[in-house]
Design goal:
Layout lengths: L1 H18 L7 E2 L11 E5 L2 H11 L6 E5 L14 H9 L2 E4 L8 H6 L7 E4 H4 L15 H5 L14 H18 L4 H28 L4 E4 L6 H7 L2 E4 L12 H14 L3 E5 L5 H8 L7 E5 L7 H5 L4 H15 L1
Parallel strand pairs: 2-3, 2-4, 4-5, 6-7, 8-9
Antiparallel strand pairs: 1-3
Amino acid sequence: MIKKLISVITLSALLFNLTGCHATQATQINNNNNNNNNKLNIVCTGFSEYDWTKELLGSHADDINLIYLLNNGMDLHNYQPSAKDMITISECDVFIYTGSISDNWVDDALGEVTNSNRQVINLMDIVSVKEEELKEGMQIDEHEHEQEENSDYDEHVWLSVKNAEMICHTISNVLCELDSEHAQDYQENLKNYQEKLNSLDKNFMQLAEESSVKTLLFADRFPFRYFADDYGFDYYAVFTGCSTETEASFETILFLAQKIDELHAETIFKIENSSDAIAKSIIASTSEKNQIIVSLNSMQSVNVKDIANGASYLSIMQDNLEILQEVL
């Protein structure tokens, strides 16, 4: 009986490891990688909340174990936590996540509680969320058919600078509560960071006001719904923001090609690390066939190397601003 029980346990452990073979391992990204039980442990699923938290910590960042789960650049839509990640989440003091359908694993992770005082920040509970929009001409995939009656909410809330300001305020409040000794520093860091966000927001507003182009054409998924709504841009895209499809139908390609001709568009967009094959097919179907393909960064696959090279929420959004200023 004992031998049989040991065999079952061993097999279960092996199966768990196999199912998690594609998951990233939770890794600390700070100047001190040694676990210290006297430090606060903050776990962030996505890059934006990781970077916001780091900025709000300021000079106290080295006094906190700040962990970015998707540090290997895995797209959040494909992430599944490893066993180590689950333990890290169960033991942390603060867990920050998006709160979308891509985070359907979170309920199980939060159910494993080692730290009963753990605080949880759900980004989509802080801001006004929007339902995913099926625009004219978009490719419809099986996921969208399944969700016709219960629409998904667009999870890409971080691409709104206005949302970033609200979320940072919530994160700062939690830091002040858990580390009241340095609350004044966190409040000052929040004030300084929100001034930078506000300046970026004004630059995007100026861009939108001065641009003669008011419609963005994406040969890709479209995660920029919140951004577009903030600044009054319309858009057409091949897929919704969370679509799992990778191939476009002839009808979808033809529709976007006709839109490009209709709007006399000179630019077609895609997101970072995405193939330009669909964009090239669309361009080949236009009258002029001379449009340029430009990438905008949606911050869904920022990795450790990017961070080491200076990538931040502000720098990536500033890069997007400069790209849009050039092509619009």
